Give the backbone structure.
Amino acid sequence: MNKFFTAAALLAIGSALPSQAASFQDSLNLIELVEQTGTQVSINTNSFDPSCKGNAGYYQFVKDKVDVLVVCEDQTNTKNSDEMWETVSHEAVHVAQTCNGGAYFKANYHPRMLRELRSLAPHYAEQLMGYRGDHQLMELEAFWAELQTPETVVKMVTSACFED
């Protein structure tokens, strides 16, 4: 399937649906999918990780050196399925973006995503203002994904990382 068609279909479906809470099983399924890309996933209970300071999680990729998605337990309540989903889905989209070689969606979809964030999660739209340039677009997609169904986020990772 053509990635552009997939992205357009996901945006249309995602925008038409209200955000839905995900279960722990949804987060675990997404973690397993991310691990299938070759990315190591870690639930970090180490409060000494400087990358976790103030972050719910992070994704770090340096070709042939590091490929890790971390959930920071100090900032993410791993016993709360909503918090787990928000962190795992957000960081999983960064994995999909890495597989895709950049933003998952074409630029003309980003204004719609921003409108949806402003409507459903204005605090995310406000957080985006702290990012600049291409990084802002990457974060827009990741914040938007937190509001989507598990099926939508799984499809993003699958189409970016496993389909030609």
In short: Residues 81-100 form the longest helix (20 residues). Strands lie at 40-44, 57-62, 66-72. The two ends are 8 Å apart (CA to CA). Confidence is low (pLDDT under 50) at residues 12-18.
